[in-house]
Amino acid sequence: MLERSIGEFSRFLVIALGFTIFGFSTGEWLLGLTLALAIYLFWILLQQTRFDRWLSNGRQGPAPTSFGIWGEISDDFYRMQRRHRREKQKLHAMLRRVQDSTSALREGIVALEDDGSLAWWNPAAGEMLKLRSEDEGQPLINFLRDPAFVRYMHDETIQGPLTLPAPGNDARTLQLEITRYGKDEALVIVRDITRLHNLEQMRRDFVANVSHELRTPLTVIAGYLETLEGSGQAPKPWERPLAQMQEQTRRMTSLVNDLLLLARLETSERDTGREKIHACELAERVAHEARSLSGGRHNIVVDCAQDAVLTGDSGELHSAFANLALNAVKYSPDGGDIELRWWVDERGGHFSVRDQGIGIDPIHIPRLTERFYRVDAGRSRESGGTGLGLAIVKHVLLRHSGELNVQSVPGRGSTFSLHFPPKKLVSMADT
Predict the structure, then answer these.
(1) Which domains does the chain have, with CATH numbers?
(2) What is the pTM of this model?
(3) 394 and which of 204, 300, 369, 413 could share a cystine (Cβ 3.0–4.6 Å)?
């Protein structure tokens, strides 16, 4: 830059010197110097005007040719223009490759901008969401009017994918997941999960139907076994087999009841319960059941410093609370302490069960809520568990916007905590 300035100043000095010498020869050296300055300024303004007109016309074609400092500026702009054109071509080629690759995907991809307006989508998304080329620039919620999706779009705290029927085709099930980036921009991934959804529904129906059909024969078997045991007429060698059959019948009945409850929790709508349940009363009722199961073998206490009212389904909440408390009794050694605690803070309401049992290795904790998952299969069978208790707890929490947290140290006990958001609590003054 300094070299350009020096060069341009040298050109001006040469012009000024020439006109000054001419002025001395005519006796008007001041007029010659003034004329040199005027010509130089006119030339500068002419070059500036040509360059400004080129910029105003959108830099169409190469920069205007010139010499001196303006020629160098024109050359720099020309080189920048060529470099920009090459980079633009590369970006266009890359964009075409991205569009071609995304067009081949079976998943739908929708790019959103300006608070949810359609910017671009691949053919799969257009087919699943019934989008046409003239829909560009329209808000996506104009085509997906499901209230759950509208909440999903506007509430950035909602995590994970959303499942809902396809627009105009309730027989088709879509899964949508939003990834936000930049400023007011987002990418929506759309998947057709109709087959998986139908298979899952078939599994649920099968489990529910089989469990329901098993209840009648189990009831008959249990009735006859109870009659044989209570009659006192059964032969002596039959006493032990009859007792084992009765025990296994009760276990199967408990398993069937848990399966039916799980099927109902999975198929019914979430957040349907609007009952008002006093948390401390529920905790005390669950503690009474735990003491009955313990038979005095454990020290069971309830800590409820601040009562609150939970809104939801009383039966489901009782099942979730009781499963944690009864598990603590089953897996705690005799003489161990079990604490049921309820408290409220700014994050909502919380219920926890702390025991001094065998504890759980951290590697098992992520899978505890899976159906029939057992940390120790032998101990679970001895305790009479069905392997469905924590799966039921998980689904109850899903229906009540709650979360499960597990903290455990092998050999030192476990703490299972249920967390409910403030929206599920009601002020005691409102009850």
Answers:
(1) 2-99 (no CATH), 105-192 (3.30.450.20), 197-267 (1.10.287.130), 275-430 (3.30.565.10)
(2) 0.60
(3) 369
